Every structure is written in structure tokens, then in C-alpha cells.
Amino acid sequence: MLELVDLDNEIPKETYRQVFPELEARLGECQRAARAAGVPVVIIFEGWDAAGKGTIINRLTQALDPRGFKVLPISAPTEDEGHHPWMRRFWNALPAAGSFAIFDRSWYGRVLVERMEKQVRKQQWKRAYEDVEQLERQLADDGAVIVKFWLHIGKKEQKRRFKKLENNPATAWKVSKREWKNHRKYEQWQEAVEEMLERTGTAYAPWTVVEATQGRYARVKVFETIVQTVESELERRAATPKIEPQPMPAPEESATRQQTILDRVDLSLSLERDEYDRELDDLQARLFHLEHELFVARVPAAIVYQGWDAAGKGGNIKRLTRGLDPRGYEVVPVAAPTAEERAHHYLWRFWKNVPKAGHITIFDRSWYGRVMVERVEGFCSEDEWKRAYREINEFERQLADFGTVIVKFWLQIDQQEQLRRFEARQQTTVKQWKITDEDWRNREKWDRYEESVVDMLQQTSTTYAPWTILEANCKLHARIKALRTVAEALESALESHYSDS
């Protein structure tokens, strides 16, 4: 592929002086239009050492309103970043709706630098292609514009630039033994680059190879590509009729309705108080030791609680955490997204809170709101919640690939038990804050929520992140089953960790 690139492409000075100022003005217009339309723009610069990435980024930012972009120079991950799934730091850096993010290197470092310098195993950089494809597809599906550049120069040109940099005391620091070592392996690096371009160039995130021998030519090509890509997306949006999301309709009555997984849950299961107290003490002591073993082994754990209103999530979480060292876990309560969170992909706020290696994160509600509350109440479109099943599975698979133990609970109660608990809350002064008008409204939509729960369980229970249904009409039974499930999952993960070490 790259051998066909004409590195002698040039633009005469006079032509450059005529076209470039107009491109700068159009880029500024694109930024303002993208802000007005709420379109996030992700611009990625990859390329050879000394190909001119910094110079082009500098010129690019001069044409933009500084209040609407951020430049993100990507280097080796910090120690803290290394204790999280590798994609987390890039998710954290993604732009809000209407903003530009300019990456000076990016997530492609895993399939280039980390691969070529053997900083990761072969299995890791090969899997990274899939992770990258999923990230960019998810962003594009959510309305982001993605523009990717490879700045290309030949081996001789790179050598010439290295020597020029070395001869200038102000820039000599830019060329070290590492750069010269990579230069000597130019051909091997080019093979990796070509594989990257072939495997990650897609219709929604194509690569543009920029012939970067002449600075004028490279600048014009970069500006033209960004302007045309953003303008094209804005035109597409303007021509596409906007369809407002609609609340989920009530399920149709059917004489042939099949039994669902929720119908088969045995809600008569219960536990006596004496047995509960005995098992609770044993399990909390067991979990305390397991938490410390997790820390030593650097194994992270994510525990997700979902369930009906008044199903007992809070009490269940309280019994789980009472047996843990508070320095090793965090509880993340998930409510309606803030304005900042709504300006990003819905998974953005959850990537920020994924557990660090050796730590436990407990989610009181989670990313599953997308396929339940947002689906039922019409807070997202049908296309959005339908593709969320795949996106959630991909998200959880990346956590699992990092070694994260994922435990997901659905707390199941019946309508009669929920009504009893609602009424008890209303009649108990210290619990009245727990019952709201929204709880009663949600109860009226039981059938809709039940359908969404069944779909969720069927679509997102995987080998690496299975659902466990807690029979929660008896809170004591549900608590013990939850703690036992967590303990067994952690023990299994630790066994696998040590057997693989």
C-alpha cells in the first residue's frame, strides 16, 4: 500500500498562498457549525518520527477557537493507567458533543509502538484491533466524526530530518538512540503500519495517508480532509429527518405467551434468621480475606446490582461491604446522567469508574439503564437501545480481557411483594424518603419493564459476565446468595490467576 504513495507531491508557494487562508476560514466555520449541531470531532495524527505531526497540529489549532478543542499528546501509560483496562484512558479523553479532540498519537500505539517494542504480548496487540474497531464504531454510531491521518515520509527523508534536528541544539533532544534504532528497522515498522491501515480503515473511520515530504502539501491535505469530512457529516444530519424517541408501548396481550426466565424464578425460597446470621458472619469473613488476596494478585472486580424498585439492592450492598476493608472497594451509585455525561457516549461515565487492578467497584445500578429505563421511558431511540446490547457485551468483554471479575445481579420480586414494601415505606417515618412518585409511576409500567428485563438477561448474559438472579422476596435469602456468589467468583478468578502465573 505505502509503496504506491507519491512522496514527491508538492504545492507551489503561490498556490498555497491562495488556497490555505480559505481553508483556515472554512475550518473555523466547521468548528462553529459542529458546536451548534452538537457533533463531537475526533482527529487522530499518527506517523513516522519527524514526519511533522507537531507542526501540523500547531497550525491546525491556530485556525480553531481555543475554547472548543483540546490537544492530547499520548505517551506511554502512567502507572495508574496501567492498572486499568488499556482503553480507559482514551475513553476519558473523548470530546463532548460539539468539541474537537486532537490526538497526537492515540490508541494505535498498541498495534505500533507497544507491538514493535514488545511492550505487550502478541495476543494483546492482536486483540487490540478488535477493541479499536469497536471503539470507533461505537463513537461513529453515536454521531462522532472521526478523522485519522498517517503522515508518511520515506526512510531517506527521515534520516535527513533526524540529522537536521541533531544539528540544532534546541531540537537535538528530539532524536535519541531509540529514534535511530527504529529508523534502522524502518521496513519492519512499515509492515506493521500497513497492517494497521488495512485492518482499521473503515467507512466510518477511514485513514488518510498524507504525503508529508513537503510541509505545504501536507497542511493543505490535512485541512481539506477535516473540512470535507465535517461538512459532509453536517450536511447528512441536516438532510436526515429527526425522529424523537418514544416511550415503550405496553406489551400486546397474547394467548400464546411463552414462559420467561423471570416466570421460572422460585420466589418462595427463604432463609431463617438463625441460619442467615451464621452464614452472614462466615461469608463476610471469607470475603474480607478474598479482598486482600485480590489486592495482592492485582485482580479487579466489578459487581453490578440491578433490580426492581424496593427489591433490596441497598440492603444487599450494605451486607456485602460490611465485611470488606473500605480502602479496597468503592460503591458507585448510578442516577440520571448529568449534563456533562449526556454530552458524551453513554458508556463514557462508566469507563471512568471501572475498577483498578486489585480493587472492587460495586455499581448500584449501571450501564444497563440504557436498555431498561432509557428504553421504557423513551430517553433514547430504538436504534440506540438495540445496539446497546452489543456495545455492553463489548464493554464487559474488554473488562474481562483485563482480568476483571464481573458479577451481575438481578434482584427479582413479585408485584405483591413490591406493593407490600412500598406501603411499609410510606408508613415508616425513617423510610419515607425511599418512596417517591416516580416509584409508583414505574410500578404502573411493570409489564414494560419486565419485557425489557427479560431481553436484557437474554442478550447480555455471557460466559465472561453472566447474570445471577437473586430470588429477593426473602431479603435474607437474597443477601446470602449474593455474598456466596461473589465469594465463589473471586475464588475462581484467583485460582485462574495463580494457575496462569
The dominant shape is globular
| Structural class designation | alpha/beta
CATH level-4 homologous superfamily of the largest domain: P-loop containing nucleotide triphosphate hydrolases
Q: Describe the main β-sheet briefly.
A: 5 strands, parallel
- How would you spell out the order of helices and strands? HEHEHHEHHEHHHEHHEHEHHEHHEHHHEH
Radius of gyration: 27 Å
CATH classification class of the largest domain? Alpha Beta
Low-confidence stretches: none
β-strand amount:
5-15%
Helix content: 40-55%
The total tally of domains equals: 2
Task: State the strand order across the main sheet.
Answer: 2-3-1-4-5
Count up the helices.
20
**CATH topology name of the largest domain:** Rossmann fold
The CATH architecture assignment of the largest domain turns out to be: 3-Layer(aba) Sandwich
End-to-end Cα distance? 40 Å
Mean pLDDT across all amino acids: 96
Could you please describe the fold and organization of this structure?
The protein is an alpha/beta fold. It folds into 2 domains: 238 residues, P-loop containing nucleotide triphosphate hydrolases (Rossmann fold), CATH 3.40.50.300; 228 residues, P-loop containing nucleotide triphosphate hydrolases (Rossmann fold), CATH 3.40.50.300. The protein has 20 helices and 10 strands. The strands form 2 sheets. A 5-stranded parallel sheet has the order 2-3-1-4-5, with helices on both faces. Helix 1 packs parallel to helix 10, helix 11 packs parallel to helix 20 and helix 12 packs across helix 20. The model has no long low-confidence stretch (mean pLDDT 96).
